[in-house]
Amino acid sequence: MFADFLKRLTAPDPAPLSSPDASLAMAALLVRIARSDGSYETDERSRIDRILARRYAMSPFEASKLRGEAETLEAEAPDTVRFTRAIKDAVPYEDREQVIEALWEIVLADGVRDEEEDALLRLVAPMLGVNDRDSALARQRVEAKRPGAT
């Protein structure tokens, strides 16, 4: 189902993605980061649904459907390096910077900076063209929104 999409995404000079394709690619990154620690729990899926609904002005049903498609895409996607670089080439910077914040939401969803998730995010951010400073600022914004933050 996603073979043509992945072929277009990983082509040597990918064309910019349409809005629906860009949202699917970004959702797949959220799924990849959530799965990176070997545990993909209901609360992570719910958090992804909320992020997608908020980011793309979707109903809960639409967000859940997109996440389901993203789960399939993520499983079929190439290694993180090629997949992320392909997204960098096809998605505007502003969208990539915002997805780093969403990725931090997933990493910090359970209140613990899991080593595997943290390491993957530190790998993904520069591949998306987002520098360490902007990624750290995104993490701080997410931490500030968490319950009990001062």
Automatic annotation (TrEMBL):
Recorded coiled-coil stretches: none
Domain Co-chaperone DjlA N-terminal: from-to ranges: 24-140
Matching CDD domains: terB_like_2 (cd07313)
Domain of life: Bacteria
InterPro entries: DjlA_N, TerB-like
Any matching Pfam family: TerB
Name of the featured protein: TerB family tellurite resistance protein
Native species: Mesobaculum littorinae
